[in-house]
């Protein structure tokens, strides 16, 4: 049974008639151009915004859940994270334990180690670099051990080493009863790491399936208006943008 299933989901003019499911153990990549609706969809799943249609969690309506249950089951890393106060790294990661009402030090330390921020626990988070802060905010979500992890462009500010590390971490996280839905712009990385891809365009699903099914020249031309050269058979997959597509 699907961990989560969207049926005919819509959000004002941003998302239309979305049907999508995530299976346990899956890492699904959400791709699409700027403004396609990726963050809007993640907001909707996280409960930050309310849309229409039905969202089912293992067959049960998500709307019937308490906020506390939802916060325990679904962890969300938004695109931009900032604390209004000068919180320490430890404080930020501890926020991930709020839904559980504890400050489980073991889980907080484990999350910090997974993202490589354990040496900075007593530092003020706003004294770290952008990429370092991004890893701290991801640790916050990991500390809550959600069954569904939603991450909005978690690789955007990371260097090459940490892009690799965090992707491997998300890959490992999406096992057993857990699933991960992650938005990203790098299609070669998406092809290399995700079980399935969901290509959004103007609030609708343009293509959904394996990287081979979704990353086809025709889909990318229609959505991004570029010509690409693709080789998904090599590891890691290669994708080069040749230039803008010709107007018909
Ligand atoms: N709160 C809002 N209310 C109304 N429209 C919004 C809101 N937030 C974003 N939008 C609009 O909805 C569309 C989708 O935005 P969204 O942030 O979901 O796109 P995205 O795919 O995540 O883009 P990007 O890759 O640039 O992050 C955009 O046209 C945006 O201007």
From TrEMBL:
Gene3D superfamilies: P-loop containing nucleotide triphosphate hydrolases (3.40.50.300). InterPro entries: AAA+_ATPase, ABC_transporter-like_ATP-bd, ABC_transporter-like_CS, P-loop_NTPase. Coiled coil: none annotated. GO terms for molecular function: ATP binding; ATP hydrolysis activity. Residues 4-227 form the ABC transporter domain. The keyword Ribonucleoprotein does not apply. Keywords: ATP-binding, Nucleotide-binding, Translocase, Transport. Pfam families: ABC_tran. It comes from the Bacteria. SMART domains: AAA. Part of the ABC transporter complex HmuTUV involved in hemin import. Responsible for energy coupling to the transport system. This is ABC transporter ATP-binding protein.
């Amino acid at each position: 049974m699907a961990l989560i299933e969207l049926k005919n989901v819509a959000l004002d003019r941003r998302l239309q008639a979305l049907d999508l499911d995530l299976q346990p153990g899956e890492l699904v990549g959400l791709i699409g151009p700027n403004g396609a609706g990726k963050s809007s969809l993640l907001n909707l799943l996280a409960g930050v915004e309310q849309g229409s249609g039905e969202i089912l969690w293992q067959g049960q309506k998500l709307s019937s859940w308490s906020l506390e249950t939802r916060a325990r089951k679904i962890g969300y890393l938004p695109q931009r994270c900032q604390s209004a106060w000068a919180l320490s790294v430890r404080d930020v990661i501890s926020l991930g334990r709020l839904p559980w009402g504890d400050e489980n030090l073991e889980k907080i330390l484990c999350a910090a180690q997974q993202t490589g921020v354990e040496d900075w626990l007593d530092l003020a988070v706003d004294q770290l670099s952008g990429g370092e802060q991004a890893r701290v905010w991801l640790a916050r979500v990991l500390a809550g051990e959600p069954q569904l992890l939603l991450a909005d462009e978690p690789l955007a500010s990371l260097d090459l080493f940490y892009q690799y590390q965090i992707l491997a971490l998300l890959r490992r996280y999406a096992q057993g009863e857990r699933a991960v839905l992650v938005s990203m712009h790098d299609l070669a990385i998406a092809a290399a790491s995700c079980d399935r891809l969901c290509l959004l365009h103007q609030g609708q699903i343009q293509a959904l399936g394996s990287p081979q099914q979704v990353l086809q020249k025709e889909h990318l031309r229609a959505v991004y208006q570029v010509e690409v050269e693709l080789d998904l058979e090599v590891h890691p997959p290669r994708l080069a943008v040749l230039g803008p597509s010709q107007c018909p």
